[in-house]
Design brief:
mainly alpha; Glycosyltransferase; two-stranded antiparallel sheet; 14 helices; globular
Length: 459
C-alpha cells in the first residue's frame, strides 16, 4: 500500500461525523426489521442481515454496535438498545463452554458497558456494575478452561477441538485479562487457583510463536509476517504439527482477516501488559521479554499487511487467492471490489486499522518515532479509505455500514449479487462492529477524550 504521510486525524473529522450519522440509521433499521428469532445476524444478503449457523459468535457485535454508537454520539436511544439486549439475550454467551469467542461476544457488550460506567459516561450503579463484573469474571474463567497444553505452555483451543489454535482467539485474551484485573481466577481440581493472566499470556506467546512467521525457514513459504489461520498440535504430547486454514485459501497462505486479528490482538495486549505492575507480572514471566515477543508479532503482521495490500490499503480476502493471478499488478492499483475473480475483504481492513494505529502510537511513545509514524500513518490512510464509497454504505435501505466484507470464501457462504461473479456489496456484523470500533478510537483522539482501550474499566 501507499502510505499518506500528510493526513492527520483531524482531517477525517467530517468523514467520521458523516459515518456516525449513517451508522445510527443502520442500527435502528436492524433493530426494527431483523427477526431476532432467526438467530444472531451474521452477514447481509441483498442488504438485509441474515443468520448463518456455525456458532453464534456475532451477537455481541450486534448489541455492542449500539453501545459504541452511544459512546460516539451520547444518544441514549442506543444505550437503551445495547443495555437491554445485553441483559435479555447475552447470558448464555457467558457460560458457553464450546467456543473460543468469549472476547468477541462479551467484551463487546458487558465489557463496553462496564467501561462506560467506570469512565463516568453512564451513571454509577453498584448493582449494575457488579452485574457487568460478574459476567466478565465468569466469561474469563469459562474461556480459560478451554485449554490445551503444549511443550512450552498452552493455548485456548478453537471449536475444532483440542488440537486447534486459531489466530482469531487472540482477541478473546481480553476477557481473561479483564477477569484477572477484576481479581478473578479459574478454580481447578482440589481448589487449585489457576491464574487467568498466566493462561492469557501463554496463549499470546503460543500465537506469536506458531501462528506468525518471521522469515526463519519454518517452511519454504516462510515470510516475515505471514499468518496461519490455524495451527495444529498433537493433543497427546503437545507437539506442534503443521499450519492449516478454515477460512483462508491454504495453511501456507495468509487469510487477511486472520492477519488483521493478529495485528490488533498483539497491539492491544501490549498496551494492557504495559500497565501491569512489574512484580505482579513477573510471577509468570519477565514483562519485557513478553512485550518484545508480542511486539515482534505486531510489527511482522503490520509489515506484511502494508507490503501485501493494494495501494489504497484494502486487502483481498487471501494474499494467495488463486484468482489474483488474473488481476495483473493488483498490488499496484486500488483494490477492486467489483472484479471478476477474487473478493476484497473490507472487514480485514476495519480490524487491521486499529492494530496499525495502536502499534504506531505505542512505538512513538517509546521513542521509536520513525517506525511508529509509519504504522500510524498507514492506519489513517486505510481508515480514510474505508470512510468513503464504495466501502461506506450510504444506501438507507442497506442494513450494513461497511460494504464488501467476506465471511467464508472456501465454503461459498457469501452472497454473490445478480450480475456479479464474486461476493460484493454486502456487510458482516464483525465488519460493521470493528468499523465502528476503529471510528470510535480515532473520534476520541480527535475530541481529546480519554484514550480508548478495552481495559479502561481497570485503570
Amino acid at each position: 500500500m501507499i502510505i499518506d504521510y500528510n493526513i492527520n486525524p483531524e482531517d477525517l473529522k467530517v468523514k467520521l461525523d458523516r459515518f456516525w450519522g449513517l451508522s445510527g440509521e443502520k442500527i435502528l433499521r436492524i433493530e426494527s426489521e431483523y427477526d431476532q428469532n432467526s438467530g444472531a445476524p451474521v452477514f447481509t444478503i441483498n442488504g438485509k442481515y441474515s443468520s448463518r449457523g456455525w456458532t453464534e459468535w456475532t451477537q455481541g457485535f450486534q448489541f455492542g454496535s449500539a453501545i459504541l454508537q452511544f459512546d460516539a454520539t451520547n444518544d441514549e436511544t442506543f444505550l437503551k438498545i445495547g443495555r437491554e439486549n445485553t441483559v435479555k439475550k447475552m447470558a448464555h454467551h457467558i457460560s458457553h463452554i464450546g467456543v473460543h469467542d468469549h472476547g468477541f461476544n462479551n467484551i463487546s457488550t458487558y465489557g463496553n458497558l462496564h467501561r462506560l460506567m467506570k469512565e463516568g459516561r453512564i451513571p454509577q450503579n453498584d448493582w449494575e456494575n457488579n452485574y457487568y463484573e460478574l459476567a466478565l469474571k465468569a466469561s474469563g474463567a469459562v474461556q480459560a478452561s478451554r485449554w490445551s497444553k503444549t511443550r512450552e505452555g498452552g493455548f485456548i483451543y478453537s471449536f475444532n477441538g483440542p488440537q486447534s489454535l486459531f489466530v482469531d482467539t487472540i482477541r478473546s485474551c481480553r476477557v481473561l485479562m479483564m477477569a484477572h484485573g477484576l481479581g478473578h481466577f479459574l478454580p481447578g481440581e482440589n481448589d487449585l487457583k489457576i491464574s487467568l493472566l498466566q493462561r492469557g499470556v501463554e496463549h499470546l506467546l503460543a500465537t506469536a510463536k506458531y501462528s506468525i512467521y518471521y522469515d526463519e525457514k519454518r517452511d519454504i513459504y516462510d515470510e516475515w509476517g505471514r499468518t496461519a489461520h490455524e495451527s495444529v498440535f498433537n493433543p497427546t504430547d503437545g507437539n506442534y504439527r503443521c499450519p492449516n486454514s478454515q477460512q483462508g485459501y491454504t495453511g501456507f497462505s495468509t487469510w487477511t482477516r486472520g492477519l488483521a486479528w493478529a495485528m490488533l490482538g498483539f497491539a492491544e495486549e501490549i498496551e494492557f501488559i504495559n500497565t501491569l505492575p512489574r512484580e505482579e507480572f513477573e510471577l509468570i514471566e519477565k514483562r519485557g521479554i513478553v512485550i518484545n515477543r508480542l511486539l515482534k508479532g505486531a510489527e511482522a503482521t503490520c509489515d506484511f499487511y502494508i507490503d501485501h495490500t493494494p495501494v489504497d490499503g484494502i486487502p483481498y480476502w487471501d494474499t494467495e487467492a488463486p484468482g489474483l493471478v488474473h488481476l495483473k499488478d493488483y498490488l499496484g492499483r486500488p483494490a477492486d471490489p467489483f472484479n471478476e475473480f477474487e473478493p476484497v475483504d473490507s472487514s480485514a481492513a476495519a480490524i487491521g486499522v486499529q492494530g496499525l494505529l495502536r502499534l504506531g502510537r505505542y512505538l512513538i511513545s517509546n521513542r521509536r518515532v520513525k517506525e511508529g509514524t509509519r504504522y500510524w500513518q498507514a492506519g489513517l490512510t486505510v481508515l480514510s479509505r474505508l470512510l468513503e464509497t464504495p466501502y461506506l454504505s450510504v444506501d438507507p435501505k442497506h442494513q450494513g455500514i461497511l460494504l464488501h466484507s467476506v465471511y467464508h470464501r472456501p465454503n461459498g457462504w457469501d452472497h454473490i449479487p445478480k450480475g456479479y461473479k464474486i461476493p460484493c456489496n454486502e456487510s458482516s456484523m464483525w465488519g460493521d462492529y470493528h468499523m465502528r470500533e476503529s471510528a470510535l478510537y480515532l473520534s476520541r483522539i480527535i475530541s481529546g477524550e480519554r484514550y480508548y482501550t478495552f481495559f479502561n474499566g481497570l485503570i
